[in-house]
């Protein structure tokens, strides 16, 4: 059996595992939409920003999407991988000729499909709420594709680092919000002390946020779009290679 | 049950050869200078008390555990060679094993069969282990016996030359145990080598061609059940259980003396 077929079969199994557990589907797919609707309703009360002219929901739109993708990447990827290791499911796979890379790719693909559905829902809701211009849809989709690949690989890397689901859940849940906040996705960095802006350069999501801001709002970027893309792409390749090297079945 | 590796193993050769194996956990040796040879095309039982480190031995042999020292050869190959290549020829049922919980029995068998080039027919293996009737049942809804049969089926699906089963019949009823024994005898007769751990003396005596007793970090005796019983007949009775107790139950033996 070719490795493409093995990837396909593992993907189908992975999708069935998710679809057959509505809890996972709800928290990874529909929960972030709740925030979108919540912030949209707040937006009408708060009015647009004087400096940028953007409404509350317009500014937060890419941030909520990054939050949604990180949810799939961390909570929907790292935790299930750790759980599979804890329960001995990965050990059973280890008894077969299945390659680490084949397994990792198949699991990333499953989450990519999930994330693609998530992004599609965001696009539809974004256009419907008038926070996303139709002319921006294509670049928005392309950057989201890059972003979700990066986040999913990062999620897999995290899944290899922890041995305990509870510990991972705690660390990832606690770590998720500061990472999003300090990337400038939820609030402008210039309102924070300078040290946070310096820290933001070390957070990969900053570069993803920067691209979204440039594409959607014509903001001046920290780096040109191509520079940001190169950083995310480079980190994705490095993290993927580390993941394959450090992936633990047992 | 034939493939290229199998052709390299003759009747008088060893499917597994372990020399001077030492394994420690947190600086404490749990296996020390252990030697073990398992002949081709036999059912070989490794028996030992609870905590005798049977699973550690099995997991060290198949490469799940890093060993401190020693040489392990599986099917004439150094076990440290490419894992994927070796696993094409070996079927393993780990003791603590689990499967994707929301897949059905049928889906699980087809998924695992896709990992191998040469496989048994999934339908055939399901019939062999009486899984056909529960093929639509999800893994999370299986009973202990049903799950155990599924795990044995997965160890067989790749048409292996060597099968390693860690307590395949623990916690299951006599009917299922008999079924698994018959399946294992059948594939042994087709030329496959089977290694299993057990603490059921009846299983070791009735099913295994040869047995090895693991005690105090070493294999203390190896041979056919008959040979082992005959060797120690004068010191104890003629049941394998009594011989086992004599050889491994030092405290109990002192009490009897």
TrEMBL record, chain A:
Where is it located?
Answer: Cell membrane; Membrane
Residues annotated as domain ABC transmembrane type-2: 23-250
- InterPro entries for the chain: ABC2_TM, ABC2_TM_bact-type, ABC_2_transport, Nod_factor_ABC_transporter
* TM region(s), chain numbering: 24-47, 59-82, 103-125, 137-158, 170-192, 225-244
- Membrane topology summary: Multi-pass membrane protein
Leader sequence segment? none
Name a Pfam family for this protein: ABC2_membrane
Tell me which UniProt keywords the record has, alphabetically: Cell membrane, Membrane, Transmembrane, Transmembrane helix, Transport
> What family does this belong to?
Belongs to the ABC-2 integral membrane protein family.
Protein name (Swiss-Prot/TrEMBL): Transport permease protein
From TrEMBL, chain B:
Q: What is this protein called?
A: ABC transporter ATP-binding protein
Gene3D superfamilies tied to this protein: P-loop containing nucleotide triphosphate hydrolases
Does this entry carry the keyword Cell membrane? no
Question: Which Pfam families does UniProt cross-reference here?
Answer: ABC_tran (PF00005)
ABC transporter domain boundaries: 16-241
Entry-linked CDD domains = ABC_DR_subfamily_A
User: InterPro entries from the xrefs?
Assistant: AAA+_ATPase, ABC_transporter-like_ATP-bd, ABC_transporter-like_CS, P-loop_NTPase
> What domain of life?
Bacteria
PROSITE patterns given in the database record: ABC_TRANSPORTER_1 (PS00211), ABC_TRANSPORTER_2 (PS50893)
One GO MF term: ATP binding
Origin organism is Cytobacillus stercorigallinarum
User: Which controlled-vocabulary keywords does the entry list?
Assistant: ATP-binding, Nucleotide-binding
